[in-house]
Amino acid sequence: MKVFSIGFTEKNAEKFFSLIKSQPAIKILVDVRLNNVSQLSGFTKKNDLQYFLKELCNVNYVHIPDLAPTKEMLNPYKKGNITWEVYENNFLNLMAKRNIERIDKSLIEDSCLLCSEHKPHYCHRRLVIEYLNNHWNTDFEVKHLI
Questions:
Q1: Backbone CA torsion sign across 63, 66, 72, 73
Q2: Nearest Cα to 49, choosing from 108, 9, 8?
Q3: 2-7 and 60-63: which strand pairing?
Q4: Pairing mode, strands 111-115 and 141-145
């Protein structure tokens, strides 16, 4: 099974939707952002994104806030007050506490996880996929769209 991930920063709308459209295996975009109405990139606001995905890519959209960190967890990392390692450990504990493995696997299969970070290395979308692979005993092949 293949899972994709994408961040919207450093991409304009054309690049973003072209990357998604280039992967016909993507059936649903799973928004793992805490705030899906951000003004950072207007084309990624919830209602606009849902419309563009369906019209341009024939891809469905779902927002799953349980797959996002809390503001209290994210802000210290963004401000440089905690290291990536501390943030990662905190987020792994939060996913366990939320029991995210209870979500329907079909939402993740053939999906693309969306967050803001351009590269996945220091983004929680990578952690979500790794966590679910471990807890579901799956071996999702991950392709990061950059």
A1: negative
A2: 8
A3: unpaired
A4: unpaired
Task: Give strand pairing partners of 50.
Answer: none
pTM over the 0.90 mark: yes
28-31/111-115 β-pairing: parallel
Angle among Cα 74, 130, 146 to the nearest 5 degrees reads 75
pLDDT (0 to 100) of residue 43: 86
Map out the domains of the chain with their CATH numbers: 2-145 (3.40.1010)
> Distance between CA 6 and CA 143 in Å, rounded?
9
Within 8 A by CB and 6+ apart from 92, the residues are: 127, 131
User: Are 57 and 20 in contact, with CB atoms under 8 Å apart?
Assistant: yes
Number of H helices and E strands in the chain, helices first, is: 5, 5
Q: What pLDDT is attached to residue 46?
A: 86
- Separation CA 97–CA 123 (nearest Å): 19
pLDDT of residue 28 exceeding 90, the answer is yes
52-61 residue pLDDT tens: 999 999 999 9
